[in-house]
Specification:
With 218 residues, the protein is mainly alpha-helical. It folds into 2 domains: 131 residues, no CATH class; 57 residues. Helices cover 77% and strands 0% of the residues. Helix 3 packs parallel to helix 6 and helix 4 packs antiparallel against helix 6. The chain is rod-shaped. 29% of the residues are buried.
Length: 218
């Protein structure tokens, strides 16, 4: 479980790092089509998922003939939903880790109690308290304790590690969403987009136009 979670987090982080340069280009006036293509190539990127949700919602308003400037709430809502969904996916599997980390020591303690009980039963059966009589029960108790601690420590360490990574991912997604909203609604002369038309012949498209405004390539 820990290895699989680490592999997924590493993949998400790696793809997000690949996506960020294209996103920065878009923020400084780059082509939206390049951004969309980069998001499709880095589907495991948490940043790409959030940015794509905002772009798709904004494009939907433009293509439906609505006022892009009035779509702020719709875009913001789509971004929030995307962040929430991404966080749910990232947190998947952390519950069992937390459960294991918190309950394993108690399971070990239960084994310790059982071992001590067996030791006292041996004393009662033989009528003496020599080491040869109680050593078996004590050994059983110590083994149970050691196993509980052995299982709990990696689970707790992994849970804290993944929780910290998720907090970092959340900050990066929030920053990307703020930058995207600023790019879409606060830059003078900002124009809409038509992704589908750009896909037909992206090499010849300089300005993508539809009914209403379109993004201008700088």
């Amino acid at each position: 479980m820990i290895i699989d979670k680490q592999r997924r987090f590493s993949s998400a982080s790696r793809e997000s790092e690949k996506f960020k340069p294209e996103f920065k280009k878009f923020l400084h006036g780059g082509d939206v089509q390049n951004l969309v293509e980069a998001a499709r190539q880095q589907q495991n990127s948490y940043v790409a998922q959030v940015v794509s949700a905002g772009i798709i919602e904004y494009d939907g308003v433009v293509q439906s003939g609505g006022d892009p400037a009035a779509s702020f709430e719709l875009v913001a809502s789509a971004i929030r939903d995307s962040i929430s969904e991404t966080l749910i996916q990232l947190k998947r599997g952390l519950g069992p880790l937390a459960t294991i980390g918190s309950t394993a020591p108690f399971i070990g303690l239960f084994g310790t109690v059982v071992g001590i009980i067996n030791a006292f039963r041996s004393i009662a059966a033989t009528g003496s308290g020599g080491m040869s009589v109680v050593s078996g029960g004590i050994a059983e108790a110590l083994v149970s304790t050691a196993l509980g601690i052995f299982v709990a420590i990696p689970a707790v360490v992994a849970f804290n590690h993944f929780t910290g990574k998720i907090e970092t991912f959340h900050v990066e997604m929030s920053r990307a969403s703020s930058q995207l909203v600023n790019r879409l609604f606060k830059i003078p002369g900002l124009k809409g987009l038509d992704i589908e038309e750009a896909e037909v012949n992206p090499s010849t498209v300089k300005t993508v136009k539809k009914e209403g405004p379109a993004y201008a390539t700088r």
